[in-house]
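Support case: user asked for a sample of complex input and structure output to validate their parser. Sending the pair below.
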Amino acid sequence: MIPASYFFFLSIILFVLGIIAFFIKRDLITQFMAVEIMLNAANLAFIALAKSHHFVDAQVIVFFIITVAAAEAAIGLAIILLIFRQKKSIKTEEISSMKG
Amino acid sequence: MAIFLFFLLSSVCVGAVLGMILSKNQAYSALFLVLAFTCLGGLFGLIGAPFMAVVQIIIYAGAIMVLFIFVIMMINLREGLSSEKKKWTIAFSVVLALVLLLELVLASKGASLGQSPEGSVSPKEIGQLLFTKYLYPFEITSVLIIAALVGAIVLVKKKEKE
Amino acid sequence: MDIVIVLIKIVLALVWFLVLTLYLTWLERKESAVIQDRVGANRASIFGIRILGLFQPFADAIKMIFKEDFVPAFSKKFLHTLAPFLSFFFVAICITAMPFGNDIMVGGRTISLQIFDANVGLLFVLAMLSLGIYGILLSGWASNNRYSLLGGIRGAAQLISYEVALGLSLVGLIMVFPSLKLSEIVQSQGGLLFGFLPKWGVFLQPLGFIIFLFAALAETKRVPFDLPEGESEIIGFFTEYGGLKWGLFMMTDFMEIIIVSTLLTTLFFGGWQVPWLSADGFQFPWGGQWQMARWLVIIFQVLAFNIKVFFFCWLQILIRWTYPRFRYDQLMDMGWKLLVPLSLVNIVGTGLLLMVIK
């Protein structure tokens, strides 16, 4: 079958791409998406390890990561909506003042 | 057959993430990400985690990304933003990311990734672990989700005019 | 050889699915006509032969194929074209997980009458149904029409809300038949309750069945839950579509009816199980017996599956033509304040009962 290291390498590539996306993009929503990519890369690495060591716990951890990501997405998007209502923009360069 | 599927899914996945980075419109970015997450679901299925594969598709592709697209449609009905970020910032971030890539690859060289045994993990095994060893984390996540639910509603709800 | 068998199974299942879809449009026309005291579509003919308008679906198909493929100005052309195919694909793929019958033996080879028996089959179907949302969202957004966009957002909100109830209503069922594999769920519905009642999901999970029925009706987006489209008053997400693409949306609707019917059948009405029919014939609870050949049993089972599916298709069309539409706030209230709490009650109740029995 496919060696687990292939999956591990793919997860590294995805993580790096997520970091690049986070730096290049300049609006909150896409940066948030970049964070999701990195989380997914971590998930893939966990599942690759679960496979290579037959360590089922890793899959349970992925389960938790996914649930936390769902909660985080709900809250994060709510905050982004609030920022948009107040500043009429979600570009990171225009949201530089500390006071709301 | 499996190796072919792996290369197909992984190249589509990486391509979709690249498309997400390169597209100017946020809605297109979100759609590329949906494609990437669906492919990741397929990869999870390939590596013997069918339960995680469907959970990934249901939650990531079916719920979280729908939320993203929802918000994008609500706040960005005009055409997307043009990227004005300075060239050197992009170049610098790419170089740093490549350094990280190198570092990660070197670090994972020493990791023992033995030959993967055959067979897939059934939902039953995951359920048993979830309700015995990981019972407290499981309960805590439910509290977390309720907190997120209430928090999101409170945050977004418009204040009534007095 | 295995690949050939799988290909044959895929072709057969798709033919079954598409022919049933085509004739559901005919059934819908006729049933609505009966309800409204009309005659219904009866004009389509081949060489003057009309037989109750049975050729109507083909006439419709030919009309849709030859209609102008119109794309509105300033719309996102690629996404506008992609959206109907997405909705169609994600519904069509659900049929791969459905068990049509028990395993059959042909020439020493065991063939299951199911294309893809994943050990998470039930969740697979739910996942594919949840991906169908993208067709709605994209068609609304890509049409460059504010009303379509609103329709798409209404549709996505409705589907997401009812998905919660849909998933939760099945948890009790999964606890009773401890499996996510659709074939195993059907297998374990074969026994008897109290010696005479078939051990179907509907008898073990009556509340779950009702919640699932309502949530699934909402997922099909038809009256009384047709807020996303509302063809008679409000403008829906596929207003800007015509010809074949519109036809695909229409077919998706009917295919969703079939998928919901097959799900109801497999989960709550025993799938291909016939009451009191075991592998070698009927064993009636009042003592009678009726020996049957193996192949006859298989035919009975496949027929039973089909009859159950037809019945639920018929029932859904009846519901669609009988009830008025919900208001949007009523829809959301029913989803979040009635169905979700009820399904939680169902889960707790089922768990307690299972504990007491053990």
